[in-house]
Amino acid sequence: MPRRLLLATALLISSLLTGCGIIECQICGGYDADTSANASAHTSATASAHTTVGTDYPAPVTITATGYGALDPALASNPPQQELMALRASEVEAYRTLAERVRGVEITADTRVADFLTAHDRIFALVDTFVLAKSRVISQGVNRSGYFETTVALSLDTDFYRDPVATMEAEVNNPVSKSQTLSPALPRTASTSAVHFDTGAYASFTDR
């Protein structure tokens, strides 16, 4: 009987010593729950802060795109419609080109806006809707070659670079006046100067 008692006591002592060797328990005085929790929180906060500070986003920028439209000979008998169709064609091409440029905007050295978009049609089409909602026509008319020309512009701020999808969704769901979307330094009316537009055969159109 004493032998069994000694054996059981030895096993108990061995288990306690093994437990203290593996973990720091309260019995050994090497564990402080509050200190450990605070240290973990500090480490997490520090890592998060370094991640935020270490991300360098590009400066806000305004991008532009120009589209062209030609007069359709089949509509020669109806000049007003012919002009309007050519003008519409130039607008469509300008917006399409601007959307492509937005998708190609670099967020970081190895990431572009297109990388944030999935193959889902609704998400991918978000760029097109965003461009239509926030861009502005800054120049429109007929150039010297007789083509109708439309130039559109779009300003991208820092929020766009931080989270492109969220920013575009916010702009689409809560659009602001287009007069607030571009830098005041940009022109806001169509140019009809001889430098940019033909003042001959199509002067009547550009002066309307």
TrEMBL record:
Tell me the domain of life.
Bacteria
Organism annotation: Gilvimarinus xylanilyticus
Q: What is this protein called?
A: FlgO domain-containing protein
Question: What is the phylogenetic placement of the source species in the record?
Answer: Bacteria, Pseudomonadati, Pseudomonadota, Gammaproteobacteria, Cellvibrionales
Keywords (alphabetical) are: Signal
Signal peptide residues on this chain, from the entry's feature table: 1-19
